[in-house]
Amino acid sequence: MEKMIAILGAGESGVGTALLAKKNGYEVFVSDFGNIKEKYKKVLIENMINWEEGGHSQAKILKASLVMKSPGIPEKAPIVRLLIENNVPVISEIEFASQFTNATIVAITGSNGKTTTASLTYSILNSALNVALGGNIGDSFAQQVSEEKYENFVLELSSFQLDGIKNFAPHIAIVTNLSPDHLDRYDYKYENYIASKFRITMNQTEDDYFIYDGDDDEIKKWLDSNPIKANKIPFSITRKVDEGAYIENNNIHINIHNTHFTMPIATLGMQGQHNTKNAMAASTVATLLKIRKQTIRECLENFQGVEHRLEKVLKINNVMYINDSKATNVNATFYALDSMQTPTVWIVGGVDKGNDYEELLRLVNEKVKAIICLGVDNEKIKAHFSNIVETIVETAGMEEAVKVAYKLADRNDTVLLSPACASFDLFENYEDRGRQFKEAVRKL
User: Which residue ranges does the record assign to the Mur ligase central domain (predicted)?
Assistant: First the structure.
């Protein structure tokens, strides 16, 4: 009798899991509460995989021996509760796919910097190894495992993907940093969210590595009270470390197993303190996997960053337009505002996930000349900043927001889209929001 797997959600991770499960002899049923995108529907039909949309057939799903839940579906969803009550195991795509590969896995999580760190790590490893990039970015891990052609994976993992793991154990795990995010999914308890991130190391052994920001108080606090088996390798920009990465005389130094790597910060392709940390994390991985030092240096010099993360779009009338749509939380926007060198018109807003804007007050006071709200509900933003920023304008969509910004910005100013919020009220996702911004800027 075939094992049956039910898959909730027919997006990137759901369809990837369906392909991998079918290949491994499972009877597969894909169920999406909403509508399935045409490109995914086509894949399901071509591969003769059973699917439904616009609701869940509970009786059929309860027959499954295993359920893969897409990361976007909360634990509180009625169908997920029902499965748990009936003792049907509910796992994530990452957990399901990892049992079908012997590849070396580098897994990266954190509140900010994970996409940049993952992309940078991949670009270094890709110059010397057979490696794929996946997880929360690009093609799904499951689909790439089903292709059976990769010996190494770099995975960007969200807390939601980590919530659904049981045995997943990466050889190298990274936590880039911690700041409050997605608290709406964690009962508004920061400690629940933190515990979720650290699941990345729970199955690691003494032969594995855990790389982390040694300057991050929350990470240090957690590691002090929770012993882990993996070898701990910190990176720090404030102090020298024996094993790990640190800064001395404006050079990055990495010391691991008697291997020493050094590189001037000034030659990094991406500048700014947080990017220096991303570079330290990525080059620590590359050093552990024995990539040549010269290769690491060249990759770090040439890497220009990822789309929607402080991406320079255009200069119009000497005003620079910057797309930082990927800033879906306050901490990411903090980095963005911190890196602004000129008076800034700041486009902000969206779905607030329990944001605390206090930490932005100093920067907004120093850098921001006008705020443009881009969300259905902007009360909290107005309440926080109306005392320190004279001009706050509410807009109904991206095109309007960009036109207002164009009017408010003077020569040598910057217009910055850095929303500090999720995008689901007006946009499909942060990529859609970023693309709409770029399109509106090009139309000016």
Answer: 108-286
